[in-house]
Amino acid sequence: MKIEFAPLSLPLQRRLQTASVVQWVFSFLGLAQCCVALFIGLLFTRFWLLSALYAAWWLTDREAPSRGGRRSQLLRNSIVWRYMRDYFPVTLVKTAELDPRQNYLMGFHPHGVLAVGAFLNFCTEASGFSTLFPGITPHLMMLSLWFRIPFLRDYLMAGGLVSSNKESASHVLQRPGGGNLLTIIVGGAQEALDARPGSYTLLLKNRKGFVRVAIEHGTPLVPTFSFGENDLFEQVSNPKGSWLRRLQHRLQQVMGVSLPLFHARGIFQYSFGLVPYRRPIYTVVGKPIPVQKKYKPSEEEVDRVHQKYLEELCKLFEEHKAKYNVPEDSHLEFI
């Protein structure tokens, strides 16, 4: 006998969606500290052996984030991510096929404050990545700093995150047989400082390292733009040259991460808080750009492919902006 469950009521669904987003935002902000505290705290209890054994294993496993990570389909398919997807909601839009016999390097834009679109689309199956792109395994690069934190590193790798360095990129892009997609949020943490509603400023003009890596491996480049990514949070005014912007840049140089002062709505009220607004995100995956392999490309060759990438990204933006309520007079600005 088949058992059927009654669908959840709309109010309950919305509460679960909000709860999933709240846990993700606050885990993003505080999980690192909790993991460090747990690791150190266990050393001063009768369970100290757990931390000691983990430390020994961590030492032998320290290269894993640069060797493709260690994903968990159980985590990637968790129902929590589907509730989080429906909160905004988040939609992954396919415009071209990706050949599973090839490896690809994807440039993701913009970073936004917390890179919600990149996480949900490429670190979970909430938006149906494997259905849209069968035979393709996604990887998302993240600052190496986060993989030095006990327990957190395992959680990150379970979602398909890998260390953000050249060795890690080469490991994924050199895998025989193809079927791997390496996603780089090109603007990085610094671009998050310009993430605010209505902003289409991308830190991309002089960022060419990802292009050089693509040429060295002969890997097609896939431009991707996430409409709505910058609309999830407001940010305290920090124009270039202001004391706040100088302080943020200085902290980024010291710590490796930027600290945008963002705010949006609360859990039980809508005027102020750290919970993102319920605004849709449409992550549009563009057509792959063929790249000819060359071990040591010249600056001119890198510039030529980089310019082609900028043109294709602009074309992708202009072709789709009207569908996603972007004003006609809005265009991408590269800095």
UniProtKB/TrEMBL annotation:
Keywords: Acyltransferase, Endoplasmic reticulum, Lipid biosynthesis, Lipid metabolism, Membrane, Transferase, Transmembrane, Transmembrane helix. GO terms for cellular component: endoplasmic reticulum membrane. Its main location: endoplasmic reticulum. Coiled coil: none annotated. One of its GO terms (molecular function) is 2-acylglycerol O-acyltransferase activity. The chain crosses the membrane at residues 21-49. It is found in: Endoplasmic reticulum membrane. InterPro entries: DAGAT. It is a multi-pass membrane protein. GO terms for biological process: diacylglycerol biosynthetic process; triglyceride biosynthetic process. Its EC number is 2.3.1.-. Belongs to the diacylglycerol acyltransferase family. This is Acyltransferase.
